[in-house]
Amino acid sequence: MTTTADGERVLTTEGYCAADEERWAPEPPKSPSRTAFQRDRARLIHSSALRRLGGKSQILVAGTDDFARTRLTHTLEVAQIGRQIGALLGCDPDVVDCACLAHDLGHPPFGHNGERALAAIAKDIGGFEGNAQTLRLLTRLEPKIFLPDGRSAGVNLTRAALDAAVKYPWTLREAAAHPKGERSVKFGVYPDDEPVFHWLKQGAPEASTPMECQVMDLSDDIAYSVHDIEDAIATGTLNPVALADNRIVDRVVESARAWYGRQWDPDLLLAAVLRLRDGQLLPGRFDGSRQALAQLKNMTSALIGRFAGSVESATRQRYGTGPLTRYAAHVVVPDRTRYEILALKGMSVYFVMAPREREPFHEQEQRIVTDLVDVLMADSPRPSDALETVFLDDWRQASNDDERLRVAIDQVASLTDGSAATLHSILC
C-alpha cells in the first residue's frame, strides 16, 4: 500500500492501482487516514440524492405501507449483500458498496412508471434511463467538486468506484447491440455525458463491466427478488397457499418470460419454481403473527445465503483464491441460481407488478411526470418560475430547447413521489 500525491492511500496489495483511484477533477491533498474508496463511500452516504430515495417507490408506492421497502431501504439491503459477496470474492468492499449505494440514484418518482414517461419525452434527445441518470448525478448534478473550468464534477468518485456504478456501458444509440430483455431498452450514458464516460473507461474492455459492478448487479437481483417476495407475502398481496396450485405456477413461469425475455427456458424455470416451493424455501402459509414474520425473515436470509454461497463456490472454482478485482475475472452465477432468482422475480411480476400496471393510478403517475416537464418547458427559453435554483445555471447555459428539455427532465427526475404529486397539485 502506498500514498499518492493527493494524500489518499492506494490499495496496490489488494488488486488496485493508482489509475483505479484517479478522480476526474483534481482535488487538493488530504490526510492519508482514509483510502480513496472510503472517501467515495462517505460522499455517497452524505449525498442528497441518496436521501431522496427514501421517498421513491420500490414496488409499492412509497409511504403507503410501513412495512414495505422504499428505494432507500432496498439500496441499503443491496449494499449489505454486495459487501458480503464482494468480500467473499476479494473485491474492495467500499468499491462494491459505492456501486450498490449509487445503483438506483437515477430513478425518477414513481419507479419504472415514471421512467417510462420520461423515456417517451426524451426519445429524441438521447433518451431517459435510470442508470444513465445515475451517471449524470454522480458526475454532474450532485454538488460537491468542480472542474478547473467551473463545470460541476458531481461527487467526483474514483475511476474504480464510478466504473462499478455503470451497469450498462453504452448509449441509447448503441443499446440495440446489447439487449437485456423484452420489456425495455437499457443503457447507461447520455450523449452529453460521454466525455466522463470515456475517461472512466480508459483501459477497460469495450462494453464490459468490472467485477465490482457485476457483484452490484447480482446483489440487486438477489435483493429485489427475495425482498419483493417478502413484502408481497407480508402485505397480503401474495398468499403462499396459491403456489400449491400448479396452474398458478404455470402462470408465474409465463409471466417471468413475458417480462424478462423469451430466452429463458420454460422447463428450467418451472423446475426452479418447484425447487423453491417443494424444498421448503418458501413459507407454506402466512398468518401475520410474530412467528410467521420471523419465519419470513429467516426465509430471506436463507435464500440470500443460498445464492451468495453458490456464486462464491462457482467463481472461486474457476479463478482460484486471491483478490478478484476490476477486469481480472467475471462473477460466475450457476444456472440453477440464475433460474431460482428469476423464479422469485416471476412471482413478483404475477402477483404484484403486472396487476399494478392495470390500476388507475398507474396512468395518473405518468401524467404527473409528463405535466411537470410541460410546465417547466412552457415558457422556454425563459426559465419557469417552477425551475429550482440549483438547475438555473444549467438552463441558462443551454443553447437550444433540446438542452433545456434535458434540464427540465433532470429536475423532474430528482423529485420524490410525494414532492412530484404535491408540485403537480400546485402547478397543474
From TrEMBL:
Domain of life (superkingdom): Bacteria
Known EC number: 3.1.5.1
One annotated GO biological process: dGTP catabolic process
Parts of the chain that traverse the membrane: none
Keywords: Hydrolase
Pfam families recorded: HD, HD_assoc
One example GO MF annotation: dGTPase activity
Segments forming domain HD: 71-225
SMART domains: HDc
Alphabetized Gene3D superfamilies for the sequence: Hypothetical protein af1432
PANTHER family: DEOXYGUANOSINETRIPHOSPHATE TRIPHOSPHOHYDROLASE, DEOXYNUCLEOSIDE TRIPHOSPHATE TRIPHOSPHOHYDROLASE
Protein name: Deoxyguanosinetriphosphate triphosphohydrolase (DGTPase)
Organism field: Bifidobacterium thermacidophilum subsp. thermacidophilum
